[in-house]
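tokens incoming
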């Protein structure tokens, strides 16, 4: 006989003695004693160099043996009937939509594989909390399984037949969205999962935030659990496994992943030449998770009992997933010939079974009893998170139309024969005519099925998924009480990054709002001037501080504490934004409004983790993203990969993102105050992206009457020169001081009157301008409205705009300006150099702004073009050098 590594046994008799000894220990000392001896043998083998490591996975069988399987607490027959009904309604929902339109898409096979997983959770584990939803579990639903969740809500009476008939037809107002989208169904879905890989990381950080709230004494989250149902193919996304060690390190036993291992991605096997379940077990075990495998249904128990020589386990170990997929698509006769029949010892185990008997052998993920044992074990496990690896068939029940087929994921239409076969397999009380019409089926309200379904949910607190839209308001202190340094700066030099940190640090001291502030940083807190928070509020750690920090004697030493307020996440932007999303949705998940400030290098926000930001937007997040060291020229020496010239352009594409690029401390203060009131007092489902710079320059005090313009996006800052302005200059962020300097050059050196406008948000100006344009277009009989851009920049005097971002950013408002409009920006790759050199290189410094203004006036016939040439020469600009955006 060959050993597990394919090596021939040189002494079978000795091997038999060892195995007999192990069995004797098991009989007389029990499993714990046997495991202890094996652990000691493994340890000794490593010490003496016999083996370097043991396989990081267990045999290909259920983790929980039959003798340790708890009794099933529900009515299996009723639950199986309910699941069959939901399978049909989910199938009918998708097929109806595609027979009618042919273009709507939708997925059947994923829910078909996960139906038992969801129903087991709904009937026995997913807690809905109290009447308000407080204390509810958070469930991340596999996105392609949304039709199954809708099918359950239909039986519960939460969705109507009309809703189901309008699956993926939302515009009329009665339809259902494709995947879990809180923005589109704000009282139903709690978390979005449509972008694969986002859910697993968000689930871990939601579980961690529950502990954070509890450890800080803000909420009792002890009974809450986070469940994430994800696909095995989805685990290829780096975000899916990016936070596994955090969950183990912080002992998050309040999170359970259920991986639906149907062995198939969208186009074919996940690991055709390997075993994805064993691979995932290795990954999760290595990360410190408890792993529970649910591979084989109850029908296999008798076979395993006869397999005293473990021949079946050896056969499983030698079978790759590509073959498992083929076996799953074939009937019992094929399996007898091509799996059991290929090994005489294995063949003997099923010699008494017919083709039909073999055909009824189920995978563990379709067996309620096996799944219940796994879920119960997960809830009982303390001190570490659990992953359940549930083996299923993609398209289970779809027969030749999709069961374990390569094309299962794309199956959206079934012919009449396939639909009838589906009905027959699950014994659904539908006539041929009803099947052909794809009628939805709902038992009588007093039926055993619907009464059972409601009773189970009543015992678990109510229906899920369910989303709360509001939380108790939190009073915000008057701006003047904490922002005097910014409102009355009086020329004091500081950076807007310093101003932002000082503002939210002051908010932390407020009695009511302060505890709700959640400062978050993905490392480099000292870079952003946040080291004072180490002592002020402490760094959150569930373990506290088990060491004396090296800088213990300093004023701003590194202080970790269990009730720490600052989340210092380490070098993981994806983790930090997930942490921010958890805090930013706390008002809905926990009924507790929090105010997170995540401060980071702006280049590492929308460009690096934009998909996670978009998911937070879908979830109606409320909080601040502070893009520090922003712009392409303010972070002088860092160069290409650190310099941001595009984040505001991306932010402008997100409907509920309010993006600002303030130049002055008082602008920063007004924006943060307004956003805080929006989110904490007015229940506005928006989040704020505010860029801040690390450049120190003189900060003016706030002029009178500019507050409204700061929020709307623009206000007149000052005029330079005599008479009516011949040119209007717009600037934002770090480039506004250059624009102001350019206006002074125009007035002092060229005798041209200039007007400077501070633009705090081109995207907000563009949003308003689009709305006004639409209103005027659709209401031709009413007096035309005017946007702020049109009101502020009326007339024919040319307009020049300069920012530290690509030119497309200021061009957002181009259609609202009737005069000649010239934009300057930082298109191209970044460079390492001084700020002044970078601004000259990207042609956004004061000299280039002045030349652009002179050229615009010349183009309009208001100035001799010779003066433009004089300016180019005077300011040392080389007209023949390559443009900064050329490669």
């Amino acid at each position: 006989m060959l050993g597990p590594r394919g090596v021939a046994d040189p002494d079978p008799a000795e091997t038999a003695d060892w195995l007999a000894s192990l069995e004797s220990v098991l009989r007389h000392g029990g499993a714990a004693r046997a495991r202890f001896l094996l652990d000691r043998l493994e340890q000794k083998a490593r010490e003496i160099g016999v083996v370097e490591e043991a396989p990081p996975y267990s045999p290909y069988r259920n983790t929980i043996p039959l003798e340790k399987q708890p009794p099933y607490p529900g009515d299996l027959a009723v639950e199986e009937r309910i699941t069959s009904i939901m399978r049909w309604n989910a199938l009918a929902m998708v097929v109806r939509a595609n027979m009618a339109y042919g273009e709507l898409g939708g997925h059947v096979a994923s829910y078909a594989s996960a139906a038992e997983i969801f129903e087991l959770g709904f009937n026995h584990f997913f807690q809905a909390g109290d009447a308000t939803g407080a204390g509810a579990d958070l469930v991340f639903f596999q996105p392609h399984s949304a039709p199954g969740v809708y099918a359950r809500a239909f039986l519960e009476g939460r969705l109507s037949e009309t809703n189901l008939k309008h699956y993926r037809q939302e515009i009329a107002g009665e339809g259902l969205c494709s995947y879990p989208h809180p923005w589109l169904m704000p009282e139903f879905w709690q978390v979005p999962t449509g972008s694969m890989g986002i859910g697993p990381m968000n689930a871990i950080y939601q579980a961690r935030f529950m502990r954070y709230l509890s450890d800080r004494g803000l909420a009792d989250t002890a009974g809450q659990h986070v469940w994430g149902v994800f696909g095995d193919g989805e685990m290829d996304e780096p975000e899916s496994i990016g936070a596994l060690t955090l969950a183990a390190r912080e002992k998050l036993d309040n999170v359970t992943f259920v991986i639906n291992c149907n062995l198939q991605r969208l186009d074919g096997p996940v690991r055709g030449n390997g075993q994805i379940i064993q691979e995932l077990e290795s990954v999760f075990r290595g990360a410190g998770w408890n792993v529970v495998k649910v591979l084989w249904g109850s029908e296999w128990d008798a076979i395993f009992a006869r397999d005293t020589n473990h021949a079946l386990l050896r056969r499983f170990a030698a079978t790759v997933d590509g073959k498992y997929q083929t076996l799953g698509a074939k009937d019992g006769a094929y399996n007898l010939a091509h799996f059991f029949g290929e090994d005489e010892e294995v063949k003997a185990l099923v010699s008494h079974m017919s083709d039909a008997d073999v055909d009824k052998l189920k995978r563990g993920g379709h067996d309620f009893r096996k799944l219940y044992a796994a879920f119960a074990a997960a809830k009982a496990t303390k001190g570490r998170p659990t992953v359940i690896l549930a083996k299923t068939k993609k398209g289970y029940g779809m027969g030749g139309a999709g069961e374990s087929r390569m094309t299962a994921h794309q199956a959206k239409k079934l012919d009449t024969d396939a639909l009838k076969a589906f009905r027959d397999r699950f014994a659904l009380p539908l006539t041929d005519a009803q099947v052909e019409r794809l009628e939805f089926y709902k038992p009588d309200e007093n039926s055993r099925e619907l009464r059972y379904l409601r009773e189970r949910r009543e015992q678990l607190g109510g229906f899920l998924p369910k989303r709360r839209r509001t939380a108790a308001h939190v009073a915000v202190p008057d701006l003047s009480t904490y922002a005097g340094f910014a409102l009355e700066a009086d020329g004091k030099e500081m950076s807007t990054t310093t101003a932002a940190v000082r503002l939210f640090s002051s908010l932390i001291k407020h009695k009511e709002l302060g505890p709700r502030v959640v400062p978050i940083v993905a490392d480099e807190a000292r870079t952003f001037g946040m080291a004072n928070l180490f002592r002020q509020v402490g760094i959150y750690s569930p373990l506290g501080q088990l060491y004396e920090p090296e800088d213990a004697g300093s004023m701003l030493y590194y202080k970790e504490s269990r009730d720490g307020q600052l989340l210092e996440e380490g070098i993981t932007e994806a983790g930090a934004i997930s942490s921010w999303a958890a805090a930013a949705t706390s008002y809905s998940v926990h009924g507790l409004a929090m105010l997170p400030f995540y401060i980071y290098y702006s280049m590492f926000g929308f460009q690096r983790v934009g998909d996670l930001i978009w998911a937070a937007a879908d979830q109606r997040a409320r909080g601040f993203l502070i893009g520090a060291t922003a712009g392409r020229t303010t972070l002088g020496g860092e160069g290409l990969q650190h310099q941001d010239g595009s984040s505001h352009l991306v932010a402008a594409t997100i409907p509920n993102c309010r993006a600002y690029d303030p130049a002055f401390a008082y602008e920063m203060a007004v924006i943060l105050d307004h956003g805080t009131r929006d989110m904490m007092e007015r229940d506005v489902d928006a989040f704020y992206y505010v860029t801040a710079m690390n450049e120190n320059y003189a900060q003016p005090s706030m002029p009178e009457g500019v507050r409204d313009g700061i929020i709307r996006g623009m206000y007149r800052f000052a005029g330079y020169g005599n008479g009516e302005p011949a040119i209007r200059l717009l600037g934002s962020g770090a480039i506004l001081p250059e624009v102001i300097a350019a206006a002074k050059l125009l007035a002092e050196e060229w005798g041209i009157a200039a007007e400077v406008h501070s633009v705090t948000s081109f995207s907000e100006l563009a949003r308003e301008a689009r709305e006004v344009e639409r209103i005027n277009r659709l209401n031709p009989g009413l007096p035309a409205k005017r946007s702020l851009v049109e009101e502020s920049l009326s007339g024919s005097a040319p307009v020049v705009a300069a920012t530290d971002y690509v030119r497309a950013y200021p061009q957002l408002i181009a259609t609202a300006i009737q005069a000649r409009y010239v934009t300057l920006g930082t298109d191209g790759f970044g460079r390492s150099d001084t700020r002044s050199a970078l601004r000259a290189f990207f042609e956004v410094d004061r000299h280039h702004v002045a030349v652009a203004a002179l050229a615009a006036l010349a183009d309009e016939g208001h100035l001799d073009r010779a003066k433009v040439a004089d300016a180019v020469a005077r300011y040392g600009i080389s007209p023949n050098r390559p443009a900064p955006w050329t490669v």
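note: The longest helix spans residues 12-47.
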